[in-house]
Amino acid sequence: MKKIGAGIIGLGVGRQHALAFAAHPDCRVAHLCDSDPAQRAWAEKQHPDAKFSTDARDLIGDPAVDVVAVASYDDDHAGQILAALKAGQHVFAEKPLCTRAEDAAAIRAELARHPELRLSSNLILRRYPVFRELQSRLRAGELGEVYALEGDYNYGRLHKLTEGWRGRSADYSVILGGGVHIADLLLWLVGAPAEEVYSLGNAFASRGSAFPGPDYACSLVRFRGGAVGKVSANFGCVHPHFHNVSVYGTRATFTHGPAGTFLHTSRDPAVAPPRLDLHYAGCANGDLIADFIEEILGRGRAEVNAEDVFRCMELCFAMEKSLRSRVPLAVTRL
Which of 95, 165, 229, 251 could form a disulfide with 149 if both were Cys (CB 3.0 to 4.6 A apart)? Predict the structure, then answer.
């Protein structure tokens, strides 16, 4: 069987994408793209048989490339994804899929014109062992009926807003750039679409810098069925990078924080909750790619499929719009 040819645009996090494609027995890295000479040197050493370009247009449409990984700057995602789909290439996109709702709608429409193509995005928290265990316990009914979920994306890397490319992007959003991970995680855990949101934010930590938007955003989300969620994106926090998650059910409460992961089954303060011995991260940024390749080959289902991506983007765009308008909003379907 002919191996699937993979092309990767952007070799920052895209390096891990390239390694994941190369590790799959039915895939090969065919084409790499980045404008940075240092990235080119890495690519030529790690993937000597691949082509290398400095312009994404040379990779998109290359007949040797069957699937494109888009790991470029957020502002470039939409145009590259649309071009790849039009060229008949599957797409694995870094988050966020795109930065504007109209672009997401255009991507969805283009994908509908190519039912043979597959689309996914790197919403990697689903692969974290601690959250997979949580999802398993929820599906087993161990927590009872879930009525509240909370997730905090504590980025702890303020310099990436004030000094890096994010601070130079007019469209960069901490919701789309970080909160998207928590949004997808809560959608996956609760197993129901979001219907309404209300967001607030501020920019204390980045005050005086060139970054134009909020560095902190917090959204309340009402899911179908009545469960309420909280999603925060905290880029300026004085705290290591971490994802706090709590899920409250009628029978038990699951909490995951820097002090550990616990399952609370009693309201009695004298009863200490058992600490769960679970790995927090334990995965790489390319770990969703193997399942995506299996779906392309017709041998399985991607962990994150196109519908998952669009549901997540709908929620994020609603949160972002509410943040700017300061009013509650319904989640609009793409």
Answer: 229
